[in-house]
Amino acid sequence: MSEAAAKGPAPDLAPDLAVVIPVWNDTDGLDRLLGQIAGIEAVSQVVVVDDASDIPADPARRGWSAARLGADLVFARNAQQRGAGYARNRGLQKVTAGRVIFFDSDDRFTPEFARLMEELPRDGFDFGLFAHADSRVAQAGGWGPLAGDERIWERVGIIGALAELPAGKIPELIQLSAYPWNKVYRTGFLRETGIRCTEIMVHNDIELHWLSFLRARRILVSDRVAALHVVQRNGARLTNRSGAERLEMFRALDPVAQEIAGTGPAFTLPFAKFVMALFHWAMGQLAPEHHDIFRARIRGFLARHLDAAAFARIARAEPELAARINDHLAWQPRAVPA
Amino acid sequence: MTDTPPATLTRESLDMLRSSSLSGEIVPEAEIVPGLRFVPDPDAGMRGRFSSPAGRLLEIELTHERPARWCGLHIRLDVGDLSGLGIVGLSARFAAPHAIAVAPCLRSGTETGFADCFFAKQVAALPRPLLHLDALETDGRHDALPPAAPWREIVLFLPTGDVRLDLHDLRIFAA
């Protein structure tokens, strides 16, 4: 009663996945990642975009070639540092494969990624989201994301190597916040919908993540832990940035808020929870001299995008969240002594 | 205890699941692959489907028309004589949307039927699977684990209600 087939890509299907890698001053990480990619049959194209590293991160200078990778190799270098968002967009323009994944040079694929690619269709979906592991969780003996995202996965309750995400679960899963580029996109989906990364230094992926969920017609989900994200405290990773570049997050949040306003009430509360958690987290990252201007921008953002009906929905569902929003709306800068 | 490396006792059936892509209806008592079958309570009207994704063993969905007394997944073991061995071990990694427990036992054929020796711990299946490890010592302390038997199998007793369960990995070994 069973239908059997050999596992692995069907022989008549050529590899059809592009990996777009923004890199900045991390040739060792890039080397390691390219070494992993060379062992993944599904990859047909690698696009490396060097965001003006001090020493050019050209894979060819480290001995990498299309033959060694088993995939086309494209390299581009920005004349000046413009952030991972710009680098990803530039890389996306060069993609010729039917599917694409954005992956940072310090990210690592796990063996599950190749298995995921054996099962992910070539068409008929917009993106496939997979689970990841965070090195901080791994160091504590676990294997998965940080606690907040883990709770979201548990609430969604979808398990399995590959499943279709029911529309009713989207408002929950959209709230995943860490490493939101853990998706394999149908390249045509990104191009047809005009979804891009925000060209700012940090938080460039918020727009990509939220608009992808809001505009997709068919989302696939896998509980395979297909990537490991390594976080080094006080490292150069953008996660650790504490400067004014974080204040640019509103360039990513504004277009998402506008789209949310047009999609109906289902996403009001998830987005409010997401931005309030982001504001709280970013305040902790931000150097104290930027706190006042950040609070002023939060107040302006909330005033722009939360109308009375939306606020009432939030207050009914989560009064404590509404109270925190009120605190931001009522915030005034401290008077400077004369 | 000897220095002999641990032996895998289920190589054929489980390796076949890992390396081939299977899916279909679960038919009571019918082998999905050689040595692996579901044995439900015949009065419960069990129905189900299974698939075997890349690198994993099984994803199963079971429903019952009536309350069931048992539902077991049986896996034939390639060991009859336990003399010279110290343990029979089990490692598992299962997932389920909501926490459920699976009770594993080592079933040995006897002259009158069979004897079930349950592992001390049940396997917890959670949304994010955890590694489960357990072992039975074969030094004669378990009455239900005779040193010699004409046949043996691992039986995983599944929840008797409707269930979705993913078996990411299962290894039975002896040393």
TrEMBL record, chain A:
Q: Record's InterPro entries?
A: Glyco_trans_2-like, Nucleotide-diphossugar_trans
Q: Where is the Glycosyltransferase 2-like domain?
A: 19-126
What the entry lists under SUPFAM superfamilies is as follows: Nucleotide-diphospho-sugar transferases
Positions the record marks as coiled coil are: none
Q: Pfam families, from UniProt?
A: Glycos_transf_2
Q: Which domain of life is it from?
A: Bacteria
What is this protein's record name? Glycosyltransferase 2-like domain-containing protein
From TrEMBL, chain B:
| Protein name, UniProt field | Uncharacterized protein
